[in-house]
Amino acid sequence: MKFNVSLIRKLTTFVALSASIGAFAGGNHGGGHGHGDEETAIGKPGVAARVSRTVTIEMSDNMRYSPADVQVKQGETLRFVVKNVGKVKHEMSLGTEKELLEHLEQMKKFPDMEHDEPGKVTLAPGKQGEIIWQFTKAGTVHFACLMPGHYEAGMKGAVKVGKR
């Protein structure tokens, strides 16, 4: 049997390009969850110079955040230092419950999705990152790990924002 090397190279290139196009199509969603300094239902990205305090959040393989509940005052800007103390990838995503559930469905379709949003951080085992966020509205801001299976296992928490 004789193979056409040129045809095989073209097919290989086509397959590689198709795979990367799919990754870009599903990968870096914009979703309107607080880019730049625009205000959203959960507040807006914070300015480092205005951070009033730092809260360290640990993510572990028992599918829990520690602490899972945080109290802030309306208008306060927090720096979350987020640490993955587990052996699998975890994330912390801020949002309304509705936004998080919608994002969870996207993560099921594209589990290797990369985040480039100020209210989200995805971390490899042993790594740490940060989120700086200003909580402009009273109420509850939810956070969760939306890696497939993690939310369902209970990996979620809440920021209670008290009125000024």
From TrEMBL:
Native source species: Hylemonella gracilis str. Niagara R
UniProt keyword terms in alphabetical order: Copper, Metal-binding, Periplasm, Signal
Ranges where the Blue (type 1) copper domain occurs: 56-161
First and last residue of the signal peptide: 1-25
Official protein name in the record: Blue (type 1) copper domain-containing protein
SUPFAM superfamilies recorded: Cupredoxins (SSF49503)
One Gene Ontology cellular component annotation held by this UniProt entry: periplasmic space
Gene3D superfamilies for the chain: Cupredoxins - blue copper proteins (2.60.40.420)
Cellular localisation: Periplasm
Residues passing through the membrane, by range: none
Keyword ATP-binding recorded: no
Gene Ontology MF, one: copper ion binding
